[in-house]
Design a protein that fits this description.
With 239 residues, the chain is of the alpha+beta class. It contains eight helices and nine strands. Helix 1 packs across helix 3.
Length: 239
């Protein structure tokens, strides 16, 4: 299905940000300029900016327009239901170390469908609460088929457009199905150090795997949260 005009505009702006034409804090083109450039109404441009705002890529500044966000946000592992956005579930984060290739733990390798001893690309981030204290430690594992086709996943800096949009742009693959498995265990010493958990300490672990239309795994994220910050709420009809 061809993209609607406002989706095309949003994707074009994402690409321009990703290519470095606009950096954090930069002012993006005005609604009037974009409306003239794309021969659309101002309302169409507003819908395009709404998409980027909900994805956490831009922020609105009264009297100025839209700026590229200076504080990257990301979502904790899990809960990536259709219609969810980085803004609605996103929190600030800090990248830990540089992305590298490693053999993932057995349960992650199984979720990704990897052969024994096969490496994947690992990206680690520490999600933060409003006061700057740790929220969760998230390790994202990308199979080589995805990492090789999307080379910026191997760079340390944040991908301002979001990894999902970037991977889709580079590979044409995008998530249509997700599986979340939540368990509870004791924290490892490394997890306890990053999360500020006194040992022995309990943590909640969410293992999120995203699959494309051919049910091929795109990414497996393991989010580890201290017990005192983990909360899961489900709202559902009982009729």
């Amino acid at each position: 299905m061809p993209l609607l005009k406002y989706e095309q505009i949003a994707n074009d702006l994402r690409t321009r940000v990703a290519n470095g034409e606009f950096g954090p804090g930069d002012l993006l083109p005005s609604g009037r300029d974009l409306a003239e450039q794309w021969a659309v109404s101002r309302a169409t441009v507003v819908k395009a900016y709404d998409i980027l705002r909900h994805d956490g890529l831009v922020v609105a500044r009264q009297g100025s327009g839209f700026l590229v966000t200076e504080t990257p946000v990301a979502r904790p592992a899990g809960g990536r239901r259709a219609g969810s956005t980085r803004l609605s579930g996103g929190v600030p984060y800090r990248r830990l170390g540089a992305p590298d290739r490693a053999v993932p733990p057995a349960h992650v390798a199984e979720a990704l469908g990897l052969a024994h001893g096969e490496e994947a690309l690992r990206r680690v981030r520490l999600m933060l609460l409003d006061d700057g204290s740790p929220h969760s430690l998230v390790t994202a594992w990308f199979p080589a088929s995805v990492a090789d086709a999307a080379p910026r996943l191997s760079s340390k800096g944040p991908i301002s457009e979001g990894t999902t949009h970037y991977v889709r742009r580079e590979t044409g693959r995008f998530p249509v199905e997700g599986t979340d498995v939540t368990t509870v265990r004791l924290a490892t010493d490394e997890e306890a150090r990053h999360l500020g958990v006194k040992q022995p300490g309990a943590v909640a672990v969410v293992l999120h795997t995203a699959f494309d239309r051919q049910h091929r795994a795109l990414v497996c994220e393991e989010g580890v949260s201290p017990s005192h910050v983990f909360e899961q709420i489900d709202n559902y009809s009982m009729q």
